[in-house]
Amino acid sequence: MTIEAIDFGRLYRDHLAMTTRARKNAADWDARAAGMAAKALRSSYAQEFVSRMDLCGASSLLDVGCGPGTIGLAVAHRLQQVIGLDYSPAMVEAMRAKAHEAGMGHVQALQRAWEDDWSDLPQCDIVVASRSTTVPDIAAALAKLHAQARQRVYLTHLVGGHFIDPRIQEAIGRRVPSMPDYIYLVNILHRMGIHPRLDYIRNENRLADATDFADFACRVAWSVGGLSDDETERLRDWYTHTPAGEREGAPMHWAFIAWEKVPC
Hints:
Blueprint: H1 8-18, H2 26-30, H3 33-39, H4 44-51, E1 60-64, H5 72-75, E2 81-86, H6 89-101, E3 107-111, E4 124-129, H7 138-148, E5 149-158, H8 166-172, H9 183-191, E6 197-203, H10 213-224, H11 229-240, E7 252-260
Parallel strand pairs: 1-2, 1-4, 2-3, 4-5
Antiparallel strand pairs: 5-7, 6-7
Helix pairs in contact: 1-9
């Protein structure tokens, strides 16, 4: 067998099915919108992402899975049109509110999911998908991003397959199956005839600034799909006996994947 014979899109779907991890719904993200909006434009992650973008010759941008506008609003002052898409109504409203507050009348936010019809959307010079590509069908998602872009595509995807440090999984007595990581995307793009640029962004994970155990446990529960009473007590014991600087675990790593349709 050669690599050309491997269907990486199917392998991704099979791997995702093995995780038994329920996809977060719009209401789950609605509950996080306010907190994410407060941090969006001052995050080191956003700065790292934007520093890797080339806006040469670009006037428009489509931000897929935009959240509160973490990437789209960070570069909106350099563009003539920014469109954000998110399936969470609260995230869409958060981006609209931030844009209005900043006087960015050229920014539009729409409630739209990956699986929805995008035929009414214009092609944009730049298309981004920041930490939003854990979707049921990644091959279809990549094809959509490519089709919507006139010039360039930028996205980030998880490295290593885990949103929570394995030491914390061990502490609660549960091994969370790994998620499909970025290498599937690279191989699918190769099959599409696309040879992307690959880089990595490292940033502290979302447990790092937890204010107390209740906040910490809530964040762990979000990442692993809920905690039982027994798991919560095991986590509390581990939290109590672990130095503060070690509780959050390893930093998050994101693969930054970029490709050009039309060189500048």
